[in-house]
Each structure stands twice: as C-alpha cells, then as structure tokens.
Write a structure and sequence with these properties.
211 residues, two-stranded antiparallel sheet, elongated
Length: 211
C-alpha cells in the first residue's frame, strides 16, 4: 500500500468514525434504557403478583370452582362471582315471658371470607400495587355494595344499584384474570394465553381430574 493510499484509508476511517460513533453511542444508550425499563417492569410486576394479584386470583378461583361444581358455567353474566355463605341460628328464651327467640347470624370461616367485598377491601388496602383501572373499579364497587341489597330505598334506584353491582364485579373479575396472566408473562413465567385474551378463568385442570 502506497503512502497516499494509507493516508486515504486513515482519513476515511476517521470520517466514518466521526459519523457513526454518535449513532453507535445513541443506540447503546437506547438499548440500555429499554433494558432498564424491562427490568423495572418485570420487578414491579413480580411485586404486584406477590402482594395483591395472586391473592385476588385465588379468591376468584374459589368462585370459579363453585361455578363448575354446581354447573353454573353458562351463567357468568348473571353470576360473575359466586359467594359461599354460612348461616347459623341461635335460640334464646326470655325468662320473663317464656318466649323463644331465634336469631340468624353469619358465621365467617376461611371459605366464606372469600367474597366480593373482600376483593374491593384488599385492592384499596394494597392500592400501591393495583393498576389504575382496578382502583377505579374497586372504589366504585365499594360504593355500590353498600346499597345494592337495601330494600328500603326506591325501587328504581335499587335496580340501578343491583345492575351496577353485577357490571362492576364482572369487570373486576375479568381485569384480575387478565392482568394476573400479563404479569406472569412480564416475569417470564408460565401463563394462560386464553385467560389473558378473554379474562375468563380456565378450569380445565379441575375438570380433567374428575373420573
């Protein structure tokens, strides 16, 4: 290689370096930022799963198993969430009159505590881990839940509360099922694509175990 060729190669290399080095640096910084964003999203999704969404998903799983067990599979619109109630009765005698009084009360246990109101309470308690949509839904549900069973309010208003209650709990159920699976995906863990797409819990694992 002649001196002239050597000089040309050196100048060309210097020019190309000046042109492409900023692009290379920018690309590297962009990739680093994207990597940091992905890492943050993965870590935050894991915290959301651990602190809130796994528990909510478990509450819904009990409801969905009860739906399957009692053959309510086609009634999601009417029964988006199924609660179990355990009612007991206590009798007492008024010694002055001899009259027997029977009082009904609800007995709380590990099964009955998995209820709709519990979902709203848990979301608001762990609000720092809830997505915006779930916070809105849970806050609205808490308001509606206070009134949707009260028979002493005007009938038209009562119907509105009851309709809203059904719509809100259905939205909450679908939101939790979808986001639970999205967070699993973000954490590179096994998830259900069908649940992510539809918001409906897949109970095939239970069905497959029946003789």
């Amino acid at each position: 290689m002649t001196l002239e060729q050597t000089i040309i190669v050196a100048i060309t290399t210097a020019v190309l370096t000046l042109i492409f080095q900023p692009i290379i640096n920018y690309t590297k910084k962009w990739l680093d930022v994207e990597e940091d964003k992905e890492k943050f999203q993965r870590e935050y999704s894991f915290e959301q799963l651990k602190e809130l969404y796994s528990f909510l998903y478990a509450i819904i799983a009990q409801s969905e198993y009860v739906r399957y067990f009692f053959n309510y599979a086609d009634e999601f619109d009417k029964l988006p969430f199924i609660e179990i109630k355990n009612k007991s009765f206590k009798q007492s005698i008024d010694l002055a009159t001899g009259k027997v009084e029977t009082k009904e009360f609800s007995a709380e246990d590990v099964i009955t505590e998995f209820k709709k109101e519990k979902i709203a309470e848990l979301v608001l308690e762990k609000r720092q881990f809830a997505l915006q949509d779930l916070l809105k839904l849970a806050t609205a549900y808490r308001f509606v839940h206070e009134y949707y069973t009260k028979e002493d309010i005007e009938k038209e208003l009562l119907n509105k509360f009851q309709n809203e209650e059904l719509l809100l709990i259905a939205k909450i159920v679908k939101h939790v099922v979808k986001e639970y699976n999205r967070m699993l995906h973000d954490c590179h863990l096994k998830f259900e694509q069908q649940e992510l797409d539809t918001g409906m819990m897949n109970m095939e694992i239970v069905k497959s175990q029946r003789p």
